[in-house]
């Protein structure tokens, strides 16, 4: 098998009516998600919970498997977490870093991609400098040989950066461009490791960069997990035939489905917050505050220290608040060694079941 050298972007496209029909539906649903996300008063609630879910699903595509329980528990205990859980947390940190960078620079640059991959892989290897990278399938057979020459990789990544940030190169809807950017990045395969996860981070960051989302909270990886075989088949189909129609339709459908599921998750979280608000207002109004409710939903697992820090209250008061919330079945206490923490069980179940 010979190496595959992608052509520089832009690619000539002739899109059928079915693509435009799906694009309209997907754009509307993504816009709805953006609006629903704004209904949550403290956006950190979505960032802390939904980014972890995307991190878990994206890592699972690479056979990096962890449980929701271990992932959320690692928020308090970094000493006894598995390697898989550490890698999922690194993914969440990389996604968060990318989000901060594009908000800061108002661009999505090659240097950002390098920083994202560095956090994912915990090394500074950068773009591939040595030939020999070959991708194998589950049978151990060579399935794809990406560009081998370091100069080709740099040239193609420079071209990709320009295409991402300069819409005059090809006037397309951002959702269509996202599908082409994702294909191009995966075909270049610029890193020794972490290409798949970096590419999936780029998907949602590009949607934020183009202002289609305020936050990187779309679970596109959950769709790819369910249709993983099709994903790789379509990548190969483009490389062999140059036909993007099915690929674009596939990813638009992914955005459509996961937008709807993310909307449902956010609405469930909002309903649960409203329920907790009513319980405290009716049964213990002396401890109720909007800030307390938000802190109960920042993370499924809660320790008194987080309330002490965020609400600027004493440890004794924080402990009192948590015990009252446990009394009303908003939280449940759990012991880990000599430490006690509280679980927002219903929030945990929403995140566990959503995808």
CATH topology group of the largest domain: Fic-like fold
CATH architecture descriptor name of the largest domain: Orthogonal Bundle
Tally the beta strands. Answer: 5
Overall CATH class of the largest domain? Mainly Alpha
Number of domains: 2
Helix count? Answer: 15
Question: How would you name the oligomeric state of the polypeptide chains in this document?
Answer: single chain
Measure the end-to-end span: 38 Å
**Topology order in helix (H) and strand (E) letters:** HHHHHEEHHHHHHHEHHEEH
Poorly predicted spans: none
What proportion of the residues form beta strands (DSSP E)? Answer: under 5%
Rg over CA atoms: 22 Å
What topology, given as strand order, has the largest sheet? 3-5-4
Q: Quick one: overall form?
A: elongated
Mean pLDDT: 91
CATH homologous superfamily title of the largest domain: Fido-like domain
Indicate the percent of residues in helices. 55-70%
Which secondary-structure class do the elements indicate?
mainly alpha
Please give the largest β-sheet. 3 strands, antiparallel
Active site: 189
Organism: Helicobacter brantae
Binding site for ATP: 62, 189, 193-200, 231-232
Pfam families: Fic (PF02661), Fic_N (PF13784), SoFic-like_C (PF21248)
